[in-house]
Amino acid sequence: MNWAAVLHLALMALWRNKSRAMLTTLGVIIGVASVIAMVSIGAGAQKRIAEQLESMGANTLVIRPGSVTRGGVRTGMGSVTSLMRTDAEAVRDITGVIAVSPAVRTSVQVRYRGANWGTVVEGVTPEYISVRNWPLTEGEFFTEQHVVSADHVCVLGQTVARELFGLASPIGETIVMKGVACQVRGILSVKGASAWGSDEDDRVVAPLTTVQRKIMGIDYVDSIEVQTAGREATYQVMGEVKKLLRQRHRLLEDQPDDFRVFNRAELAKTSEESAKVFTWLLGSIASVSLLVGGIGIMNIMLVSVTERTREIGIRMALGARRRDILWQFLLEALLLSAAGGVIGIFFGLGGAVLLSRFSEFPVSVTPWSIVLAFSFAALVGIFFGLHPARKASRLQPIEALRYE
Amino acid sequence: MTREIIKIEGLHKTYALDGVQVHALRGIDLVLEQGEYLAIMGPSGSGKSTLMNIIGCLDIADAGRYWLNGQDVTQLSGGQLAQIRNRELGFVFQNFNLLPRTTALENVETPLIYAGINKRERRSRSEEMLKLVGLGERLYHLPNQLSGGQQQRVAIARALVTQPSLLLADEPTGNMDSATSAELLTLLDKLNTEQGLTIALITHEADVAARAQRMVILRDGRLEASS
Prior knowledge:
The complex is a heterodimer of chains A (404) and B (227). By secondary structure, chain A is an alpha+beta fold. In chain A, helix 2 (18-56) packs antiparallel against helix 9 (264-307) and helix 9 crosses helix 10. Helix content of chain A is 57%, strand content 18%. Chain A folds into 2 domains: 3-52 and 270-402, no CATH class; 83-248, no CATH class. In chain A, a hairpin with a 2-residue loop joins strand 4 (97-112) and strand 5 (115-124). In chain A, 42% of the residues are buried. By secondary structure, chain B is α/β, with parallel strands linked by helices. Helices cover 34% and strands 29% of the residues of chain B. Chain B is built from 7 helices and 10 strands. In chain B, strand 1 (4-17) and strand 2 (20-33) form a beta hairpin. In chain B, helix 5 (148-160) runs parallel beside helix 6. The mean pLDDT of chain B is 91. Classes of the chains: A alpha+beta (404), B alpha/beta (227). The A-B interface holds A 1-2, 4-5, 8-9, 12, 16, 310-311, 313-324, 397-398, 401 and B 53, 56, 58-59, 78-79, 82-83, 85-87, 91, 93, 97-102, 106, 110-111, 113-116, 119, 158, 162.
């Protein structure tokens, strides 16, 4: 008994019951297709979250002034003015740090001719663009020289540009914030909503010194954002930053930090974890339908064994051994599930593509989901095919022959 | 020189039917030599089918010995019995027992598949065999497109395609009118005389049994008289 012959027998048997075979396969097709489609949706969500975090600057640390206890009173976070621009300069020398962006911010009413708009002005250094991963669409950013001499220049976010200038180009125009007239040098690209739902494009960006001295009248900074070489480096840099700032702020052993360091990579990790759980959840729900498809195969194969009892008896009389019968029925089940698997892959891929085209869902087809769904389908075929096949092979030849 | 195809000594078989023990065979002794054409007669319930199943290696006796073509088959395993059925025996049943929705050619090819013969040889041997039984023009007909006589010829072709030592026919003409029946019996005669085929035929009809060279009668589980 060779394999080509068993395969031939199994194929012939399926061919004789074409419509039944196709209907049985349908269960597996739907199962495999839904596993692939669901996992693709999950993986798509995962990918989108990763991209969003990337655009936010995933490998960044944010240093803010912390609370401090004076005479038993603990002040709120950010209530101390311990961070200085010199701190930022010192942090830049830590290995693993790529760029450092100290910043101050305050809300202002911006005027341009007759129009005015309430927004936030941020005072930063040119490294802001690198740290925030935020290119310009028009014009250019201010330079280090502008910061040194506290020049009256600025860059607008998309929202501010639209509210004040409409369709006209703001480049070279002058806007006024708290009595300070600044020339617009460029426009930032669209960032959209932040992870917390606020409009990232609703801002004006000006040199740090200009905002500090001329608009706010302060000498400290509100935050220092630190871009690191990579996710791994971030943790190491975080420790170094803490050590350095304690030293610079001359804190004693028993005094708490007067600053806080936040890790955006940590946030990224949490979001990615939850997206992964989401993918597994969708995948396992879809797997249930694949399991149901497998039970459908077992059901039909059991009916088939009963219906073909006499055929089995004839085959045994003609010299089929028990294992020949076993393999024929097992192979029939396996062929049904494998065919369902292959067709299901196409439907799953098609469904994923259609979904991404006609809906807001980001879809990402992963090879492992295809491999997983197909092998699961094949396993289902073997598992649910084994019982009917054993039943068939254990029939007694004379009883099977007499079966009406 | 003659060779014993079947040699049976003291065969007993008891089976339970609806909880009642039926002693179907009560000590059978039988010898069938190569080229012989034997008819086993008997009324219904005499144990014919039981004997047929044991001779056909579809069932195993409780006691006694049975040599088929010199081999003691009472000692064989299920797999070995399947091999014996495949190589040494050809079956022809009353109700034809062709595989449904399967062409005449594929029906005849089936035992060759289990014998591990390759596709090309299967095809040529099966075509040849169908031509021999006069169905060379109906290779691709399905059983339900053939008459009863034609279906039984397909069954004979299928039984003989493996070149067995013995053809076992169980009431082969039971479902046929007398003309078709006569035609089929003529075919068996021809196979016996021209090809030297050894045949054991079971029937309850005396005129069918009369075609054989030798006849034994089974009654109440014993072979009563032979002629």
